[in-house]
Specification:
This protein is an alpha/beta fold. The protein is about 35% helix and about 20% strand. It contains 14 helices and 19 strands. This is Nucleoside-diphosphate-sugar epimerase.
Length: about 475
């Protein structure tokens, strides 16, 4: 079957594409920039259609000849206009997919309450648009549990880091998590069935406290969790953002999604997809931890850009640059391997305490800080998160460019370029900043003394380690 996947660079989409290929489907992915899929194992096996759901004129070619299409796009971040944007994107998709026999959308379970969170209402609205305007099956899932998923990471970090906690009363609400492998099974099977309307999926019914205690049980931890008669979802979101790698803008919709009981009526799922027997929550946790331990995490929650702007480096007037260059007695491959292995558990080679302090400061003002880490200790893919950076471009062994997502008064990049030179490599490291207003210029020049020390030390250490043949230091 000819299948189009939107959201192929996201957490679910990045895992669904290889499964579709394994099942023999011909897969086309819709991306705003084809570089977003470079480096993925399946990149050469798919057809790439460059386009933007926000621009209807770019969509007809992507949908030409398509027999099935997946809509895996939604704005999880807590921004002011996410609902309006999601509505517009869904309408554009539905109109372009009007003649497609099967459309599959992954949405979220809705609680039976009057004050449903705006994010859950928006996801339901998207599903309604797709069902009314296209031949859609809407799968509704609760917290998805798998290596790298936002829900799993939230439970994992809260449970690992806090041996005893007082928690708001909503942790006693029922929720219905589902393993990511079961979500993928439902998505694949939905492509083979006639449009089925709304289908709710899930496994065990647990409270959020049960989810944390269940994780603790798998890890052999003892945890005391005491609920108190307060709700305070906004305060809880800030706490999640402080304790876990998940930024406040994502923690807010995650927490608001469980302040009411959220359970599935799985009768239709059992009738339409009898092949799927959802695995228990504890088993899903065990599998996720195995993947993390084996460093086999194909996608992470932080890999998707969502509706955030994808800035491209340009030669703007007023762009400020710090360029450092050094000859390295090692081949470009060894040099690239060294600087592309930075971040995450390994740190940043020099002045790591200063990097950690900068991460704490960024978290304090609502940025991602350093806790997002990296998906894989040795390999970077365009578009994925690396601490408080985003991989804008990766072209081994020639180029790696990171774009800053920390809170700064402007836009910032850190770039490494290699050139063969006299039997070795010329390494050029450039820090780039496009200031916004006077505050941007003041920030840059105030930071220059620290940058001079840190970035000079970094390029020298990259060269030294590459020449030693050891690459970056092992994870701490």
């Amino acid at each position: 079957m000819n299948v189009l996947v939107t959201g192929a660079t996201g957490y679910i989409g990045g895992r669904l594409v290889p499964r579709l290929l394994e099942d023999g489907h011909r897969v086309r992915v819709l991306v705003r920039d084809r570089r977003r899929i470079e480096g993925r194992a399946w990149a050469g096996a798919v057809e790439v259609a460059e386009g933007d759901l926000a621009d209807p004129g770019t969509l007809p070619r992507a949908f030409h000849g398509v027999e099935g299409a997946y809509y895996l796009v939604h704005s999880m971040y807590d921004t002011r206009d996410f609902a309006r944007r999601d509505r517009a994107l869904a309408i554009n998709f539905a109109e372009a997919a009007a003649g497609v026999p099967r459309v599959v959308y992954l949405g979220g379970l809705l609680p039976h309450a009057a004050d449903v969170s705006e994010h859950l209402r928006s996801r339901a609205e998207v599903g309604q648009i797709l069902r009314e305007r296209a031949n859609a099956t809407e799968l509704r899932a609760g917290p998805i549990i798998g290596s790298g998923s936002a829900s799993f990471e939230m439970v994992r970090y809260l449970t690992e880091r806090i041996p005893a906690m007082i928690a708001p009363r909503w942790i006693l609400n029922d929720v219905q998590p589902v393993a990511v492998r079961d979500v993928l099974s439902y998505l694949l099977l939905a492509l083979e069935r006639a449009p089925g309307g709304v289908v709710e999926i899930g496994a065990d019914r647990l409270t959020f406290r049960d989810m944390m205690q269940g994780y603790a049980g798998v890890r052999g931890l003892r945890r005391a969790i005491v609920p108190v008669p307060v709700l305070a979802p906004r305060l809880a979101s800030l706490w999640v953002g402080f304790v876990t790698p998940i930024p406040n803008r994502l923690a807010t919709p995650l927490v608001m999604g469980v302040v009411h009981p959220v359970v599935a009526d799985t009768e239709r799922a059992r009738a339409l997809f009898p092949e799927v027997e959802p695995i228990p929550y504890a088993q899903a946790v065990e599998l996720a931890l195995e993947r993390v331990a084996e460093q086999e995490v194909p996608t992470r929650w932080s890999g998707a850009l969502g509706s955030q702007p994808s800035y491209q480096l340009q030669d703007w007037e007023g762009t400020l640059r710090e360029v450092r260059s050094v000859h390295v007695d090692a081949p470009p491959e060894a040099v690239f391997r060294t600087f592309s292995g930075l971040g995450g558990e390994r740190g940043w080679l020099v002045w790591n305490w200063a990097w950690r302090l900068r991460g704490v400061m960024d978290r304090a003002v609502g940025g991602p800080g350093l806790r997002r880490g990296r998906r894989d200790p040795d390999r970077l893919l365009p578009g994925e998160a690396l601490d408080f950076w985003r991989v804008e471009e990766s072209d081994p062994p020639r180029l790696l460019r990171l774009r800053a997502e920390m809170r700064v008064p402007g836009k910032a990049w850190l770039e490494w370029v290699t050139y063969p030179e006299d039997g070795g490599t010329r390494l050029v490291q450039t820090a780039i900043f496009a200031p916004k207003g006077l505050s941007g210029f003041l920030y840059w020049y105030a930071s220059f003394p620290a940058h001079k020390v840190i970035f000079s030390g970094m390029v020298a250490e990259v060269a030294r380690r590459a020449e030693a043949g050891g690459g970056p230091s092992p994870p701490r």
